Amino acid sequence: MVSDLEDRAGDALAGVLDRDLKELGREDAIAFMRAQGVKQGTPAEIATVCEAYGNHPLSLRLLSGLIARDTHTPGDIAAAPRHDVHADLVQRQHHVLEQSYNALPEKERTLLSRLAAFRSAMTYDALAIFNEFGDEAKFDAALSDLQARGLLQRDIAHNRWDLHPIVRHYCYDRLTDKKSAHTRLRNYFAKIPASDADKVQSIEALAPVIELYYHTISAGRYDDAYQLFRNRLHDVIYFRFGAYQTQIELLRVFFPDGEDRPIRLKNEYRQGITLNLLANSYALFGQPRRAIPFYISYISIAERQRDKLNQAIGLGAVATVSYFPIGEFVKTERNLRQQIEICQKIKNEFHEAVGRQELGKLLAYRGAFDEAAQELELSSRYDLKANDKQGQCVGQLFRALKALLMGNGRVALEAAQQGRTLADEVAKMAYSFERDIIRAEWLLGAALVMEEKDLNAASTHLTEALTRCRHINLVEFEPDILLAWARWHRIREMDAKEAKAFAEEALAIADRCEYRLKQAEIHNFLARLALDAGNRAAARQHAEIAKERAWCDGPPHCYKPALDEAERMLKESA
Asked: What percent of the chain has pLDDT over 70?
């Protein structure tokens, strides 16, 4: 018994390690789900579903079983929304929960249900807004009683109170004054002074603002919530931390009836902006096709309002993060050139420069390296004139990418180093753009691998890139980083087995997200591994797939460097 390991004050006895066994870690949760039969889905997708259940083993065991046997898509994490196991969990614990809940004094039942309205762990001051016990001593006694009954948990080290997800779900369902409770919570969190956005170091530090946001939504004040999101959450979550899944969760609450139903905002301009923000996050989270309808709706709203700037932004966004990664090069180029044309007419140099930057990247993939250099140069002129450090950073990273596509590791390394330095300068001026840092670390590692020099440094950069990438569930660059690791293992350790494992992990993500350009690169690499092993048949099979993926819309709208490599490998494997 735990009591046998504690002294009378409740502290662990000498020599006893007191550790609560709660949720699984991210990687353990993913491994558990895969072992239970959930074979399809990116690590980020699986992690997101697990986090929704607090990574609790019982929840995940029940959920994984339902997903593994799903009628429509067995073993695919995409089936998770069809299987809400909270009800099953409550049913399994129903007799215990019902007896425990009904045995509470009426005031404690009401208090517990109101506490269930919190989304996360609570401070004592927050709990105290529901103190209707007459004085603090009686309120403290009620909290202690809830703890003793196992219905309320307390983290003494951080002085926070929380509820188990099953208890929270059960008690919240029995909250009779939901809107009133959320209104009181909104009023409480609204009084907490806003943190200095430049000093926020983690998503966790935004907890009070996120609580305020959700309670504002739950109180039915959608337009107030929009303003709060734009003023205090978006820039930090999206740009600094790159926490795209968090942003998706925050924005989906504007669609309580489903994403295919009208958004709950009165102002059409705000509707458009919200659609664009949600689309951006879906695309960078590895769901570029899912983002397209949101972008199209955003562009349509801008056209109706004759808002040329937002029309240009929408055209560029859908081109860059949706059409481009799935290999729709004709649409990508058409949209980017239209963005540039509109921006020239309205004299918006910033978004014209952004459009030229992205057009330069597209042209590099098409193998039109001289034209790509011209567009990147035109973009950099504006960035230098405006002293836009973040724009300069991206420009250098695109130059590094272009050099890699040309097979020039030395130039790629120099450009990536400059890009990484600029990312640090951006961090000093305002705050870092996590996506740019991840891209810079990946390109540094990839360039070093291409040069086959200082592979220890390459390992350091790739480790940093993958750690940061997975920390925020950024899917966009994960296949690129894994492929760079595969190349590292082939060169550094001559370990074909490990190289193949990394490449296949990268391919699973690329296939899941329909990243055609990454699929082409990975299949080319697997073809090379097969040739190394003397397996011409396997090499030819991979090379043929690589050629098909690199074809895109057909020459000249193809991924030319990958297409050329695939054709070379087909000749070698003949």
From this structure: 93
